[in-house]
Amino acid sequence: MKKLHRNTAQGIVDALSNIFYKNGRATRVLEKLNVANPKWGARDRNRVHKATYEIIRWKNYYCFLSGTEKNLTDVPQLWNLLGTWLVVNSIELPNWEEFTFLDIKKIKVNQKEKITSEISKSIPNWLYERGREELCEKWDDELEALNLEAKLILRVNRIVISPKKLQQELLDKHQIETHFIKGYDDALQLNVRKNLRKNPLYLKGYFEIQDANSQKIAPFTEVKPGMKVIDGCAGTGGKTLHLASLMRNKGDIIAFDIERNKIKELSKRARRNKVKCIIKSWVGDAHYKESLTKWADRVLIDAPCSGLGTLKRNPELKWKLTHDSILEVINLQRKILLEQSKWVKEGGKLIYATCSSLASENQRQIEWFLKQVEGADFRLEKEEIFYAHETQFDGFYAARLVRDICE
Fold first, then answer.
1. For 23-73, what is the HEC assignment?
2. H or E element, residue 218
């Protein structure tokens, strides 16, 4: 039977404490934890990573099994959840003081009990009800898919290498096996998950790590070499770099974001990816933005959103969201649509995308925009919903609108 070492167990509890009680983001918390524990081997890091994510993902279910209060408030509760994870995964429960009050028989009895969707899907009740209201029968299927671990997907940077050549180099030089995904032209999926942030091919800009459905957004814009493009909510530049790759480094891209640190990271990634067509990455001011009126062939709004479509990789989000936070992001999306739609030239196209499953952040936002004065010149050309349960990747929405030419 597998065992859990004390140092590894403490790492898991420390990670959970930072995520649940200090509002940390799981990916960053685990990265810092790995640095703080240089003696951990690959097996230790993988165990900490797996346990942390599964406990976050299934918090409500593990609370039910162990009889722990769902509203976590202290560290002993986290040890209860860790012990429950050990029992559920048939890993020997150490004879430690932290597990003294954990009832293994009770856990096994509760595993056979009939439970509500809030528990079985491990999601706050209000969020479950909202999803049911907006997605109807699709919501349960979507939650099932979003509770599975995310696959590790690479996006090939065609500026410097072809997908087939990259696949061969990964295999020949690093013994990393990958496979192509039908319908995703630039994607390679790893057969076995590995940390590739220090891989020489990554450092040379041959690929980025990007979910497969996220890779659908840039092609959806229908960009071509030589175009003028604005990425209005660029973040750290995942889709900006994909746009540059599709444009074969020819044309002009302007990338905006409200966070200066993200723009700095975008610039760093652009250099690594050998991207030269980003003419400005900008936090921006009102005067400069005004000069872009009707300038762009394409404007991509990868809008701030609830992030519900990314629960595979960011399961902590479902415990941090509130009705008010979703309302705030809906209002922000509308503000951005009104502002950035002005940058689309006549005959150009506006692309609105989110990584959310909720219609209130997606279809309903487009319906609202088209009724506004700013949307009067636009018509909906196409929209797509990439459901997690249909694709096995993150959930995404995308709408493409055309600005009519005034005669």
1. CCCHHHHHHHHHHHCCCCCHHHHHHHHHHHHHHHHCHHHHHHHHCCCCCCC
2. helix 217-220
Looking up tokens 């940058």 gives 343
Q: Are 205 and 237 in contact (CB under 8 A)?
A: no
Report the pLDDT value the prediction gives residue 284, as an integer from 0 to 100.
Answer: 61
Closest CA relative to residue 201, chosen from 159, 162, 166:
166
> Up-side HSE of residue 360: CA atoms within 13 Å toward CB?
17
- Write out the two tokens for 340: 């950035």
Buried b (16+ CB within 10 A) or exposed e, 220-255: bbebeeebbbbbbbbbbbbbbbbbbbbbebebbbbb
Within 8 A by CB and 6+ apart from 296, the residues are: 228, 229, 230, 254, 343, 344, 345, 348
Instruction: Count CB neighbours of 269 within 10 A.
Output: 17
- Residues 249 and 373: their CA atoms lie apart, in Å, by 35
Terminal Cα-to-Cα distance of the chain (whole angstroms):
76
The pLDDT assigned to 42 comes to: 86
Helix-then-strand count for the chain, H and E: 19, 11
Q: Which runs of E-coded beta strand occur in 233-291?
A: 252-256, 278-282
CA distance 266 to 260: 10
pLDDT-derived band of residue 285, with 50, 70 and 90 as boundaries?
low
Choose among 290, 294, 293: nearest CA to 347.
294
CB 60: neighbour CB atoms within 10 A? 22
| 3-class secondary structure, 352 | strand
User: Strands 378-386 and 278-282, how do they pair?
Assistant: unpaired
Per-residue pLDDT tens for 139-166?
Answer: 999 999 999 999 999 999 999 999 999 9
Strand partners for 242: none
pTM across the whole model: 0.94
Structural domains in the chain, sorted by start: 6-115 (no CATH), 153-209 (3.30.70.1170), 216-403 (3.40.50.150)
Strand duo 378-386 + 178-181: pairing: unpaired
Specify the residue for token string 């649509």.
337
> What is the rounded distance in angstroms from the CA atom of residue 84 to the CA atom of residue 104?
8
Q: What is the pLDDT of residue 1?
A: 44
Q: Give the pLDDT confidence score for residue 281 in this predicted structure.
A: 73
